[in-house]
Design goal:
The complex is a heterodimer of chains A (about 110) and B (about 120).
Chain A (H helix, E strand, L loop, with lengths): L8 E4 L5 E6 L10 E6 L6 E4 L13 E6 L2 E6 L8 E9 L4 E4 L3 E5 L1
Parallel strand pairs in A: 1-9
Antiparallel strand pairs in A: 2-6, 3-4, 3-7, 5-6, 7-8, 7-9
Chain B lengths: L2 E5 L3 E2 L5 E8 L8 E7 L6 E7 L4 E3 L7 E6 L4 E6 L8 E8 L8 E4 L3 E5 L2
Parallel strand pairs in B: 2-11
Antiparallel strand pairs in B: 1-3, 3-8, 4-5, 4-9, 5-6, 7-8, 9-10, 9-11
Classes of the chains: A mainly beta (about 110), B mainly beta (about 120).
């Protein structure tokens, strides 16, 4: 059971906009920023979004993040086949004094 | 370009200890960064194990704290993980990662490729 809650799956067709939610509590998302990671099949995770809504250099602007209260969201617009991957949210948890991840969302491009 | 590379035995016996090393290139582990371990059981999600600062300060996942030791070897520019009293539940791909300091949220910006460790007799 992950501390942060994500839907196990999401899907969309090429060109569509898809959002993935991440729900937490006052001790994690409610008081700290959220990072998102993309994990392509068989590879290590890659930083996709940091500090709620910032993209590292090289990440397309099709990817965006937002946070409100104790929840966060990752949006992918103009969905492409190469976006098919697992997506994880993460945050620091003040109660646990450690990092916590969501359970991951498997994105399928139909 | 920062690169991290995990190494260590791929098979560990139950009740034994798992030991992995992460060799860092393109950056100094003596710099102002945290260095972390994350694991992923087969077909499952990511779990943070712990991290160490260049000064030696350490944070551990409370659920693993009693069995984990993370250490630095500045002379070899690497850091290590030791997990004691392992069971089959510790079978996972173990990743080392760098924590980007100075950025709100301190994300993991560089990851190793991962090392599969299987606990089995």
């Amino acid at each position: 059971q992950s501390v942060l809650t994500q839907p196990p799956s999401a899907s969309g067709t090429p060109g569509q906009r898809v959002t993935i939610s991440c729900s937490g509590s006052s001790s994690n998302i409610g008081s700290n920023t959220v990072n998102w990671y993309q994990q392509l099949p068989g590879t290590a995770p890659k930083l996709l979004i940091y500090s709620n809504n910032h993209r590292p250099s090289g990440v397309p602007d099709r990817f965006s993040g937002s946070k409100s209260g104790t929840s966060a969201s990752l949006a992918i617009s103009g969905l492409q086949s190469e976006d098919e991957a697992d997506y994880y949210c993460a945050a620091w948890d003040d109660s646990l004094n450690g990092r916590v991840f969501g359970g991951g969302t498997k994105l399928t491009v139909l | 370009q920062v690169q991290l590379q995990e190494s260590g035995p791929g098979l560990v016996k139950p009740s034994g200890s798992l030991s992995l090393t992460c060799a860092v290139s393109g950056a100094s582990i003596s710099s102002t960064n945290w260095w972390s371990w994350v694991r992923q059981p087969p077909g499952k999600g990511l779990e943070w194990i712990g991290e160490i600062f260049h000064s030696g300060s350490i944070n551990y996942n409370p659920s693993l704290k009693s069995r984990v030791t993370i250490s630095l070897d500045k002379s070899k520019n690497q850091f290590s993980l030791k997990l004691r009293s392992v069971t089959a539940a510790d079978t996972a791909v173990y990743y080392c990662a760098r924590v980007l300091v100075g950025v709100v949220g301190s994300p993991f910006d560089y990851w190793g490729q991962g090392a599969l460790v299987t606990v089995s007799s």
